């Protein structure tokens, strides 16, 4: 009997419209799959991670909370092994790792959970203006409940002012929350100095380390971190899995944000997804072995990208500190070019813009505005994300396409013509008609 080639599940997927002329999707036609330079959004699953996960989808499919048979026992053992792999990467104890659905949930548990637990004594939280949206929105949620939030500004290089942080801490401060590596501009905050300030003032420190895990060294004891949010799909692991690090000595407590069967010590109820957890653990173990090699390779690719663009274009600005940054994140602004137009012209490269495009308005990134970047330059930002599987050929192609598109757009810009003629654009008084 002939075997069916595809299952019914696979048949419901709508394929891309592909022909000899290229690929069409959502009304956009491109010659082929674009090269991927958006590693801050997500990363591909490392094939070695997938190999570790597959058995737990097929033969070892047990519920890790089933305590009466082999299927449950082997899944539980796999979960605990992954817990140890993740904790080893950050120099923590496996008992300090709580599995969640991702960094967004971990951030919500950290910020709301800590402040709710200590609400009788603490009602003030400190964060920065450049945090991830889920941290800022969690803080705004607490404000609506009556908590007091201080949003610290950052310097032009994107780094927090340590003296301002110290001066902002009050006797009723219950938490300081500062992102380790910024997702948009890649700057690395001085976490050791921040941790020392929190240690001296006896205030718990939370950090969103989704963009830092496996890319920069993390030692929770050295950095004095009390709670930390982690994500699997940023380090070549699967989507839908994250973790929350919670210090045991001195112990930090949180109020659970979800009720259920009491899994993960009651802090995050729900069946732990064994295959995703195994993948997250495998990704962390690989990162521990290859972090140093990856960092050197990615740094050389970033230098190649930046030098290639700067050698052929003027008016290119790196957003955020050029010294204290993760090399895989390069956020550039191109003078006299509109970011969305540049993105539309770069259909062969999967990158993202610092501009947030909504149906009603086109606002520049709140992160770039917090840095004090001029609005016209904030509108032109493009974030290039380089990772473990990025090649030199891809970087060279990205340089070629970027230079070509910027030159094309500048050729249509009257402002660029005026700049070339030596006119100071900022001195022009524009008349309204």
From TrEMBL:
<keyword id="KW-0808">Transferase</keyword>
<dbReference type="GO" id="GO:0031071">
    <property type="term" value="F:cysteine desulfurase activity"/>
</dbReference>
<dbReference type="GO" id="GO:0044571">
    <property type="term" value="P:[2Fe-2S] cluster assembly"/>
</dbReference>
<dbReference type="InterPro" id="IPR015422">
    <property type="entry name" value="PyrdxlP-dep_Trfase_small"/>
</dbReference>
<dbReference type="GO" id="GO:0005829">
    <property type="term" value="C:cytosol"/>
</dbReference>
<dbReference type="GO" id="GO:0046872">
    <property type="term" value="F:metal ion binding"/>
</dbReference>
<keyword id="KW-0479">Metal-binding</keyword>
<dbReference type="InterPro" id="IPR010240">
    <property type="entry name" value="Cys_deSase_IscS"/>
</dbReference>
<dbReference type="Pfam" id="PF00266">
    <property type="entry name" value="Aminotran_5"/>
</dbReference>
<dbReference type="InterPro" id="IPR015424">
    <property type="entry name" value="PyrdxlP-dep_Trfase"/>
</dbReference>
<comment type="similarity">
    <text>Belongs to the class-V pyridoxal-phosphate-dependent aminotransferase family. NifS/IscS subfamily.</text>
</comment>
<dbReference type="InterPro" id="IPR016454">
    <property type="entry name" value="Cysteine_dSase"/>
</dbReference>
<keyword id="KW-0663">Pyridoxal phosphate</keyword>
<dbReference type="GO" id="GO:0051536">
    <property type="term" value="F:iron-sulfur cluster binding"/>
</dbReference>
<feature type="domain" description="Aminotransferase class V">
    <location>
        <begin position="36"/>
        <end position="397"/>
    </location>
</feature>
<dbReference type="InterPro" id="IPR000192">
    <property type="entry name" value="Aminotrans_V_dom"/>
</dbReference>
<dbReference type="InterPro" id="IPR015421">
    <property type="entry name" value="PyrdxlP-dep_Trfase_major"/>
</dbReference>
<dbReference type="GO" id="GO:0030170">
    <property type="term" value="F:pyridoxal phosphate binding"/>
</dbReference>
<keyword id="KW-0411">Iron-sulfur</keyword>
<dbReference type="GO" id="GO:0005739">
    <property type="term" value="C:mitochondrion"/>
</dbReference>
<keyword id="KW-0408">Iron</keyword>
<protein>
    <recommendedName>
        <fullName>cysteine desulfurase</fullName>
        <ecNumber>2.8.1.7</ecNumber>
    </recommendedName>
</protein>
């Amino acid at each position: 009997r002939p075997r069916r080639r595809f299952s019914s599940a696979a048949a419901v997927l709508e394929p891309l419209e592909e022909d000899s002329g290229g690929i069409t999707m959502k009304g956009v036609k491109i010659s082929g799959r674009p090269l991927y330079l958006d590693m801050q959004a997500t990363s591909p699953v490392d094939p070695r991670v997938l190999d570790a996960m597959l058995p737990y989808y097929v033969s070892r499919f047990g519920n890790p909370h089933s305590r009466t048979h082999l299927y449950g026992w082997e899944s539980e053992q796999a979960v605990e092994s992954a817990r140890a792999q993740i904790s080893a990467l950050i120099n923590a104890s496996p008992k300090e790792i709580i599995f969640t659905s991702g960094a967004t949930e971990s951030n919500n548990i950290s910020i709301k959970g800590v402040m709710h637990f200590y609400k009788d004594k603490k009602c003030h939280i400190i964060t920065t203006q450049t945090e991830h949206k889920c941290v800022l929105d969690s803080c705004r949620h607490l404000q609506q409940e009556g908590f007091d939030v201080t949003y610290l500004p950052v310097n032009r290089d994107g780094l927090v002012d340590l003296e301002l942080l110290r001066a902002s801490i009050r006797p009723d401060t219950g938490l300081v929350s500062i992102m380790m590596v910024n997702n948009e501009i890649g700057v690395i905050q001085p976490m050791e100095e921040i941790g020392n300030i929190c240690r001296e003032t006896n205030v718990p420190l939370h950090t969103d380390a989704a963009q830092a895990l496996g890319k920069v060294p993390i030692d929770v004891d050295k950095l004095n971190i009390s709670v930390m949010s982690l994500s699997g799909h940023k380090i070549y692991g699967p989507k839908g899995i994250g973790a929350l690090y919670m210090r045991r000595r001195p112990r930090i407590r949180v109020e659970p944000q979800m009720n259920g069967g009491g899994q993960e010590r009651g802090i995050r109820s729900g069946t732990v997804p064994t295959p995703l957890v195994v993948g997250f653990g495998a990704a962390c173990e690989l990162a521990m072995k290859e972090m140093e090699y990856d960092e050197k390779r990615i740094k050389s690719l970033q230098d190649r990208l930046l030098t290639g663009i700067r050698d052929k274009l003027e008016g290119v600005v790196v957003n955020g500190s050029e010294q204290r940054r993760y090399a895989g994140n390069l956020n550039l602004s191109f003078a006299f070019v509109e970011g969305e137009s540049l993105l539309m012209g770069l259909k062969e490269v999967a990158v993202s813009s610092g501009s947030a495009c909504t149906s009603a308005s086109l606002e520049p990134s709140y992160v770039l505005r917090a840095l004090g970047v001029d609005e016209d330059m904030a509108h032109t930002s493009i974030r290039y994300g380089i990772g473990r599987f990025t090649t030199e050929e891809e970087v060279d192609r990205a340089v070629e396409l970027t230079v070509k598109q910027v030159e094309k757009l500048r050729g249509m810009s009257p402002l660029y013509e005026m700049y070339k003629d030596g006119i100071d654009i900022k001195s022009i008084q524009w008349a309204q008609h």
